[in-house]
Amino acid sequence: MLMFGIMLLCSFETKGETNCNMIGKPEYPLLSNDGDIIIGGAFSIHSKINLEIPSFTKKPQHLMCTSLNLQEFHFAQTMIFAIEEINNKSSLLPNISIGYQIFDSCGSTLASMRSSMSLINGQEMTAEQTCFGKTAVKAIIGESESSSTIVLSRATGPFKIPVISHFATCACLSNRKQFPSFFRTIPSDYYQSRALAQLVKHFGWTWVGAVRSDNDYGNNGLATFVDVAEREGVCIEYSEAILRTNTKEKIAKVVEVIKKGSAKVLMAFLAQGEMDVLLEETIRQNVTGLQWVGSESWITAKYLATERVSKVLAGALGFTISKSKIPGLKQFLLKVNPSQNPSNSLLREFWETTFGCHLSFTISPKTEYDKYCDGSENLSNVSNAYTDVSELRISNNVYKAVYTIAHALHNTLTCKSSNGILNNSTCREKDLMISSQVLKSLQNVNFTMASGERVYFDRNGDPTARYELVNWQKNEAGVTNFITVGHYDASLPSEQQFVMNSANIAWAGDSHMKPRSVCSESCQPGFRQAVIKGRPVCCFECVRCPSGEISNMTDSAECIKCPSEFWSNENLSMCVPKKVEFLSFEENMGILLTAFSLSGVSLTIAVALVYYHFMDTPLVKASNTELSFLLLFSLTLCFLCSLTFIGRPTEWSCMLRHTAFGITFALCMSCVLARTIAVVMAFKATVPGTSVPQCSLPLQRTGVFCCTLFQSIICILWLLLAPPMPYKNISHSVDKIILECDLGSAVGFWAVLGYIGILAFLCFILAFLARKLPDNFNEAKFITFSMLIFCAVWITFIPAYVSSPGKFTVAVEIFAILASSFGLLFCIFTPKCYIIIFKPEQPLQKKHMYFTCAKHMCSHVQNTSAHMCKTHLLTLDHMWHM
To answer: pLDDT tier at 842 (50, 70, 90 boundaries)?
Structure first.
């Protein structure tokens, strides 16, 4: 706006009239034509500018632009073609002609500002109407670069002059607060950058280099790309910025960085000017083998697709807007000739540059060309960026921009609102129409081109973002073509926006193998990524997952913990059900314990058969036959109850195993206790004056029943209050599930076990007291040994049971049951079986000798003692014949 303040000076005269005087020399358009309504154009028709360093002692010289840009000249001619086509139509702006003024911004923001002022002010040195807000043009088409467009839009914004760009893609231009009058027919880089990030992620390239134009286009575009790419897990190895005006040394350093980088993919967010200088240096340093990913500014630039450049860019990928066909454009371009306007220096320069000659009929100074031409040369024989209409992408944007302005003008002049209804309040004569009305109409424009393409703008002045993914491929003739291999449509849901075609892709160096560009090789399933300190997240080490955790895909960031009933497999790639552990009948330990249990049952039955066979012998009679068989029965149950501990725990087996164990052992201990009491009472009774045995058979039965009943009551209460239930123990072992029976109530379990211990302890005490009685007429000594074994086994059982893991807990309990049962069986019954089978006569001899001795002793004692002695004899005789 400073330039505008300098160029215009408004003075107020005494008559009340306002005059606007221009300071300095006006800027004239390179191409122009008069009309009822004028629209402006700004193109970088020249790509370089000769700028003299100001001396501050004289006025700066006029800016000199050099190096004709044939593509930009092509855009300018496309604008002229569209205007002439509209002027020839009767359906659009009937009876109204459109004129144009096209300025050269020379690829420089400084020249762009001068062009902006000229488009706003016009060329008159004094313009009264301009001071009242009427601008020279109603709308402007341009520019091709974002930085120049920003300058143009900022200058024209306060005057509400709409600007429509065909090639400025910086996302910053979508800011309606800063650029309220800006529109464009090319999508914003916001979408292109996101599409490029998805492209890089799609091919698994997580380690890429980046080079950008050091201007609004490159900086903003790459910033969006980096932001999205990092969220997708892509890292940038380096990011370099260049300008076409940089020194060769600067460009060489950037190429050195690219050359030394380990990334095999190069993201080039460059305008064509920067791409040209970068390619020159890249070719000079022979940097090949990189997979180039390009922005739309150069990815379909036909002039780059030469054999020399293709060695570097072969297989390049990038997004571009859809191409189109413009009927009649090629014929119009080929008709351009300096003879149309001999005084136009631009046409003369174009002709001389195209044919490399000096026009003989002009009075221009001698050029560097020695060859002369007269303007009769044929452009159809020339193949360059100007005559090429095979890839009409950006040219179509210029074409659409002109038609968009024409429709906005048409709607304004015909009083149409956004919904197509006539609105008289907006009607304006063409001479009174101001740019703000055109701006409003542009925001609401909505029409369909002859090609079928629908044209409209969103609230930010942007079109719908649709791109084609093109790939540089050589045909059989060695000519590089841009083959569409995918599409991106931002209007679709996120998961449907990017679609790849089935077409084959040519990769870097025309290879058929997709390049791999990663900082670290992928971590296979079973491993996770561990970030290396000080390096980007894409640089990592592969760390094996711990046991119990898995990673089931490549490059997992974290290991996943398996559910409680699952465990990781050997490869740590999937969770599998944990191994279920319990003491089964099929394993060796189960088979061995089962064999011991059945052996105990067999031996017990064998002893019972021996007792039954020799039931009438004195020794069997003296052993209390009924208690002996009851004891043998209880021992059989003890051996059998150990089998309930083997096999998969169920609800019934858990309740049965502990209660059966408690009741059978209580019955067993009750029988042993009754036998022990009977022996002690027989030989230690001190109650005088009775001839009845002190430990009769009914009393023994009652004692056994009551002791067993008490244990049964404990077990019933246990089952009613908190019964043992199957339980999956996952805390004891991390990699397996131990199936066991939860006690339900630990108090119940230890009460059952404690009661058996009390009975065993009583048996041991009584047997110990009677240990010195005659060997063959009592069992005290053998019961003492059996109780010692029993108590030792169960005392040892307690710490072993608590500390044994898994199925060994059950095995320890079974071992204790079997050991104590075998101890009782062997200690109590083996001596008697031995005597019954091998020495049957020994009990009769011992009986006769003992009774003879006892009677002799009783005859020598006093009255009271004699009575007690006789009572003993009666008791022994009774026991002998029971």
So the answer is: low
| Rounded Cα–Cα distance for residues 252 and 278 (Å) | 8
Using CA atoms in the order 531, 534, 537, 543, what is the torsion angle rounded to 10 degrees?
-10
Say whether both 672 and 726 belong to one domain.
yes
Q: Is pLDDT at 636 greater than 50 in this prediction?
A: yes
Residues 11 and 118 in one domain: yes
> Alpha-carbon distance 543 to 522, whole Å?
11
Where residue 630 sits, what CATH number does that domain have? 1.20.1070.10
Q: Are residues 820 and 851 in the same domain?
A: no
pLDDT, residue 686, reads: 44
Residues 666 and 812 in one domain: yes
Q: What is the mean pLDDT of the chain?
A: 82
Q: Return the sign of the alpha-carbon dihedral for residues 775, 780, 784, 790.
A: positive
Q: Is residue 197 part of a domain?
A: yes
pLDDT at 780 (0 to 100): 65
3-state helix, strand, coil in the chain (%, to 5): 45, 15, 35
**Residue 631 to residue 637: CA distance in whole angstroms:** 10
Q: Quick: pLDDT tens for 152-163.
A: 999 998 889 999
Contacts of 45 (CB under 8 A, 6+ apart): 30, 65, 68, 69, 72, 73, 76, 104, 106, 346
**Which comes out higher in pLDDT, residue 752 or 292?**
292
Residue 422 carries which DSSP code? B
The dihedral through the CA atoms of 329, 333, 335, 338 has a sign that is positive
Q: What is the pLDDT of residue 527?
A: 93
Q: Is 341 part of a structural domain of the chain?
A: no
The residue written with tokens 């379990």 in the block is: 749
Integer Cα distance of 30 and 24 in angstroms: 19
Q: What is the DSSP letter of 540?
A: E
Maximum distance among all alpha carbons in the chain?
175
In a shared domain, residues 740 and 861: no
Contact 510, 310 (CB under 8 A): no
The residue with tokens 């134009």 is 213
- Cβ atoms of 39 and 82 within 8 Å: the answer is no
- DSSP 8-state code for residue 558: S
Q: Is the pLDDT of residue 621 over 70?
A: no
What percent of the chain has a predicted confidence (pLDDT) above 70?
83
Rounded-to-integer distance, Cα 63 and Cα 105, Å: 10
The confidence band for 859, taking pLDDT boundaries of 50, 70 and 90, is very low
CA dist 568 and 526 (Å) reads 9
Q: Is residue 506 part of a domain?
A: yes
Same domain, 769 and 851: no
Q: Would you give the DSSP letter of residue 340?
A: G
d(C-alpha 712, C-alpha 718), whole Å: 10
**Residues 412 and 418: beta-carbon distance below 8 Å:** no
Element (H, E) at 68: strand 64-68
Residue 532 shares a structural domain with residue 487: no
DSSP 635-654: HHHHHHHGGGGSSS--HHHH
The CATH number given to whatever domain includes residue 474 is 3.40.50.2300
174 secondary structure, DSSP code: G
**pLDDT class of 18 with cuts at 50, 70, 90:** low
Whether the pLDDT of residue 430 is over 70: the answer is no
Range of the domain at 43: 2-187
Give the pTM: 0.65
3-class DSSP state of 537: coil
Structurally, how many domains does the chain consist of?
A: 5
CA 736, CA 580: separation in Å to the nearest integer? 6
CB-CB contact of 104 with 65 (8 Å): yes
Same domain for 201 and 267, yes or no, is yes
Q: Angle between the 109-121 and 146-156 helix axes, to the nearest 10 degrees?
A: 30
HSE toward the beta carbon, residue 318, CA cutoff 13 A: 26
Backbone angles phi, psi at 514, to 5 degrees: -65, 130
pLDDT tens for each residue of 451-464 = 899 999 999 999 99
Mean local confidence (pLDDT), 560-587: 88
